[in-house]
Amino acid sequence: MSKAPTITHAIPGPKSKALLAEKQQYVANAIGIHLPAVVQRAEGALLTDVDGNTFLDLSGGVGCLNVGHSHPKVVAAITDQARRFTHTDFSVAPYEPYIRLCQRLCRLAPGPRPKKAILFNSGTEAVENAVKIARAATGRAGLVAFQGAFHGRTYMSLSLTSKVEPYKKNFGPFMPEVYRVPFPDPYRSGEPDPTRMVMRHFDDLFTTHVQADRVAAIVVEPVLGEGGFVVPPVNFFKELRALADRHGI
To answer: What does the UniProt keyword field contain (predicted)?
Structure first.
């Protein structure tokens, strides 16, 4: 495999063209693609297609590959686990690695409060289950999300997502009891104190749209992603936590 990006054929090359034609025939159109080439192998930050072209991967499995493709330690861990067993469903037959990973996540998570963890296959599943947990724990239905947010593409998380194209177009109606306020953008809001501006919007929301004591959860990204990779002011989450505590959210 090449150690640097190398283009040896037109993109897509002949082998990729043939496979993409089969994709068109057999794979549902709901799954679009960005790279018009079919990957054969990958290593580190490089992808090599079936025609021998090697690309620099700037996606990383949409943020899943923190140590790159096929890291030797990851490959070894997967191989070792596959030799033991591949799947039981933890809710049917639990196993130690699940417990150890949750333990490690809880110890790494900041803050003095006791913590528990649960593992899912994707971010959208995590959001869906967080909503269920919040609603069951509080007995409330309301959810507050932020303008520009992305939380996933299953129905509850898509309802929380704040982007029509390409995510929400033609998929409504969406789930009820979702409310929205602006995200504190230090660069584009034009406000001397973006956090205070957001708190004013919460006051207005609780006055005109939903009772504060009917809100189960506020769903928020630490850094706004799809909305422009916006880092909030340093005081934002402290103020948001205080607001949530005042209203039992």
So the answer is: Aminotransferase, Pyridoxal phosphate, Transferase
Contact 218, 246 (CB under 8 A): no
Q: In angstroms, rounded to a whole number, what is the distance separating the alpha carbons of residues 119 and 126?
A: 8
Domain boundaries, the chain: 14-61, 140-246
Q: What is the rounded CA–CA span in Å between residue 212 and residue 247?
A: 6
Phi-psi sector, 78: left (phi>0), alpha (psi -120 to 50), beta:
alpha
80-100 pLDDT, tens digit per residue, is 999 999 999 999 999 999 999
Sequence-ordered list of residues with C-beta below 8 angstroms from that of 102, at least 6 positions apart, any chain: 116, 117, 118, 119
Q: Does position 126 have pLDDT exceeding 80, yes or no?
A: yes
Q: Which pLDDT belongs to residue 74?
A: 96
Sign of the four-CA dihedral 106, 107, 112, 114: positive
Is 44 in contact with 69 (CB distance < 8 Å)? yes
Q: Provide the whole-model pTM.
A: 0.86
Cis peptide before 173 (omega within 30 of 0): yes
Give the class (CATH, top level) of 140-246: alpha beta
Distance CA 12, CA 6 (A): 14
Q: Minimal CA–CA distance to 105: which of 95, 85, 120, 89?
A: 120
* Single-letter amino acid code for the residue at 15: K
* Beta strands in the chain, from DSSP E residues, in sequence order: 39-43, 46-49, 54-56, 142-146, 178-181, 215-218
Residue 62 has pLDDT above 90, yes or no: no
